[in-house]
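Subgroup meeting minutes
Present: P.N., E.W., G.H.
Scribe: E.W.

1. P.N. recapped why we're keeping a running log of single-chain structure predictions: easier to compare across weeks, and new members can see raw inputs and outputs side by side.
2. G.H. added today's entry (254 aa).
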Amino acid sequence: DVAFIALHGTEGEDGTVQALLELLDIPYTGPGVAACKRCMDKSLAKYILREHELPTPDWVTYSEAAIRDFGAASTFVAAVERVGLPLVAKPASQGSSLGVKVVTELEQIPNALITALSYDNRALLETWISGRELAVSVLGGEALPVVEAIPTDSNAYDFEARYEIGGASFECPAELGEAESAEIERVALGAYQALGCSGFARVDIMLGDSGPQVLEINAIPGLTETSLLPQAAEAAGLDFDAMVQKILDLALNG
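Output recorded in log:
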C-alpha cells in the first residue's frame, strides 16, 4: 500500500502527515518531511535558495510578535529601501496566493501585513517582480514542459484564478527561447534539489528583465482540473491516469 498525498495547507503540506506516515512505516507520494517543512516556510526556502546561489526576489520577514512587542513597524522605511516599491506582502506559510497583497505605497504596509498575518504568525515583504508567471513541475527529478499562467481579469494569478475554470488561461509549453528555457529548467531543478524534494513538486518562477526568479516551491502541487502539474504532464505525453501511476511508482520504488 501507498498513501497518495493530495492535501494542502497546514498539516497537509508542512510534513505533519508525512511524519505520521513514516511513524507507521507507510510509504507516501511526494517529498519527505524535511523537504515539506522547507518548502512550506517561504522565508527558510528563500534562505536556502540564496545559499545555493539560486535567484529569488529580495525580502524581509516580520513576525507578529516583533511588530506587536518590539516595535518592528519602525523598520518599514528601511524595508522599503531594501526591497523597493511596489512590493508584495505575503504570509510565510500559505499557498494559492492566500493573504497576498501588492503594496505600492509605504502607508499601505500595515494593512497589508495585517492581512498576511491573519493567515500566519510571520509574513514577508518581498520585491515585486514584473514579468511572466511560469510554473515548472518536476516529476521524478525531471522537469516537465513549462506552463505560463496568463490571468484573464487581474494582474496576478490569485486564489480564484487558480481554482476556478476560466480564471486564467494557460500556455503549455510556454513560448520561450532555447537558452531561456534551459536557464529556467536549470533554476527550477536547482531549487527542487536544494530544498531536498523527491517524487514531484512545482517551482513557481517569475521571468523578469533580470531572468528567472524563484517565488516558491510547492511540495504538494494541485491536482485539480485547473492545476498546472497535470497540464505539464499531458504536454509531456502523460495523461492524468499515467501521471498518477508514475507518482505512485516513484513512491514505491524511488
